[in-house]
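Dear colleagues,

As part of the handover before I leave the project, I'm documenting each prediction I ran so the next person doesn't have to rerun anything. This entry is a single chain, and its sequence is reproduced below.
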Amino acid sequence: MIFAHGFGCDQTMWRHVAPAFESRFRTVLFDHVGAGDSDLSAYVPDKYKSLDGYADDLIELVRALGLTGAVFVGHSVSAMIGVLAVVKAPGLFSELVLVGPSPRYIDDGDYVGGFSAEQIEELLDFLAENPMGWSQAMGPAVMGNPARPELAEELTASFCRSDPMIARAFARATFTADNRDDLPRVATRTLILQCREDIIAPEAVGRYVHDQIPGSDFVLLSATGHCPHLSAPSEVIAAIDAFV
């Protein structure tokens, strides 16, 4: 079972979930290039200007480790990275678990992504101009759960540790991506875990992903915010366990 973290995070974000599966699965955690303890010298701007570069890394990692029939668990942007990986390499995984996925953050006609194009550009400009201020503002908003400020503090600190140049590029690749056409091409058994009151990936987005991926399962968690693996790990564990 391979766990992939979201934007501005690293593999430590899975510390409350991954151990629950260690007795049944070989668990693999990793940092995307530019995150956590990854080798920053491996960062090639042209490669990572879109999510395809990260999907190629994921495919390479799975093959290098000789994994077959693995379960992929991806949070936020890594959910779409996992989708891209199985479209590029069908059969790469036996199951996909997509936590808070969004194929497109920008509204488009009848499609509701949660943000206007102008809002996304403002968000990206804010990150470019003031990375620390962006982190301090976005951490609590993304995490939700205002009654548990320690969760927002952890996410904010994680955002602040990110290399500013890489974070700007990854943010643009994430928030301007449009992977809607990739969803119907997913032939892998898939579970979508959707949180309530998620400002990053609203419920309508999760249900759209469910409708577009053939035969997928959908679970609306009681958890709120965008990071249930931190705010409600037991609920995430139970949902994954019931699926796999």
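The beta strands are 2-4, 28-29, 70-75, 93-99, 189-196, 217-224. The chain has one domain: 2-243.

All the best with the project,
I.
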